[in-house]
Amino acid sequence: MADLTILTDDNVRRLLHGLSTDDILHLQGALAEALHTYSTGSQDQCACAANQPHRTSLRQLNGATTLFMPSKAPVGTGMKIVTLAESKSPVPSSPVGSASSSTVAFTPTLPTRSSTASTTSSARSEASIISTKSSGSTQSTASTIASAPSTSTAASTAASTAASTSSAANTTPIGSLLVLDGQGAVVGLINAATLTAFRTALAATMLFKRREHVGTITVFGAGKQAYWHIRLALMLRGADVKRVNIVNRSFASAQPLLEAFSGVDGIMDEGPTPWRAHGTKFSVLTPEYGEYTRLLKEEVRKADVIFCCTPSLTPLFPPELLTATEGRKKGRYISAIGSYKRHMCELHPDILRQATAPQHRHHHHHKHARSDGVVVVDSLSACLKEAGEIVQAGLGPEQLVEVGELVMLKRQALQSSRAGGGGGDEVDEGATRAADALTEWLSKGNVIYKSVGMGLMDLTVGAEVLRLAGERSVGTRVAAF
């Protein structure tokens, strides 16, 4: 009989907020290894695709969806059961009503005592990131905002409500992860809310950290997924990130996210926060602002990285912002992780169709960033079945590549070189050129990553979190369960 470790969501948050950059890189390494085995491994390897059962779902009477996600890995077996509320509406891609024009910007700093007197703790800020209400007062937030919003009127509030009916729905997954060892004994029970957001961002930032330019990041959404994408991006490349632009349905629901990075005392400040030394600037754009369409175009076009973190049913921005000639002049890394059903869609299908279109010489593509003709996915079979962007764009398996095939480039190049050792220098040089071209695309080209999530991700990261909990004496132990 094995001992059981139980981790609440608060336990998980405390562990994850205590991670150093080296800790995050270690976790990414474990996840990359699992995903690489999933994509390339043989059937005798636990984490290979052949040993990963397909997830199933149940639709609840209230419209919510419950997912059952089994998985198998060298660490054991996992079963994640989560329920997600039904999404109703996205962040609009056009202005709503006749609200006044304004944007909000601030640089996270450690507030003085006088400026934090009426501010709630960061722990509460993160807990309410997915809420429609702010966890802190307008006065306390204004202490770290360069220009206070001019939209706190009844008219702008009405416009915000019209902009997104999804504000009433909490889309954070509710559920848990069950971890069993190789003998079938239950060794871990982990609340899945924060774990899900963290493992999703951990996978999305594996390719992000390879990018040459990450100076400007545009993030759609202000929930837990948005928080962890931003936090990991700053932990991994904080010295290079100059600005984070948040696009959200309302300023009020984005305020807790701003507070989470403002240096307010609390759980969010436990562990390293190296980006504060680099002066990264944050801004918020919402449909409450009359010039939303123009500003949205600017935020999307100037972005080096775009994180889409919403359960949207329709595209978050018009496709021509990226598909038109002006939008194609620079390479971007785009991660879309919010949709997990065929009818959900954060990116317009035209963006994916263009990214996978055959390249013709007479199109003068030397003027545009390289696309390489594929979309990167976490699971080919799952995305072909469940990813709205993939389904609606009509993409086939030949237009997709799994991230597990890309995260071990050095190892694969070495293996290719060794395999071609008997064929002369020509084979070796060919493998090297191919690896160099792939590396250049991943670091400079247009890369789209689409994820619907896999139980293998939860099991791999969950096992590492259980290890950390044991090392740091976090959680509840049940002996000989």
Short description:
The chain has 481 residues and is an alpha/beta fold. The protein contains 16 helices and 16 strands.
Description:
By secondary structure, this protein is an alpha/beta fold. Helices cover 36% and strands 16% of the residues. The protein has 16 helices and 16 strands. The protein has helices at residues 9-17, 21-40, 122-127, 138-142, 154-163, 192-208, 224-237, 251-260, 292-301, 320-323, 349-355, 380-386, 388-393, 409-419, 425-444, 455-471; strands at residues 4-7, 56-59, 65-73, 76-84, 104-106, 174-180, 186-191, 216-220, 243-247, 281-285, 305-308, 333-336, 375-377, 400-402, 447-450, 476-478. The strands form two sheets. Strands 5-10-9-8-11-12-15-13-14 form a nine-stranded mixed sheet, with helices on both faces. Strands 2-3-4-6-7-1-16 form a seven-stranded mixed sheet. Helix 1 packs parallel to helix 6 (192-208), helix 2 (21-40) runs antiparallel to helix 16 and helix 6 (192-208) crosses helix 7 (224-237).
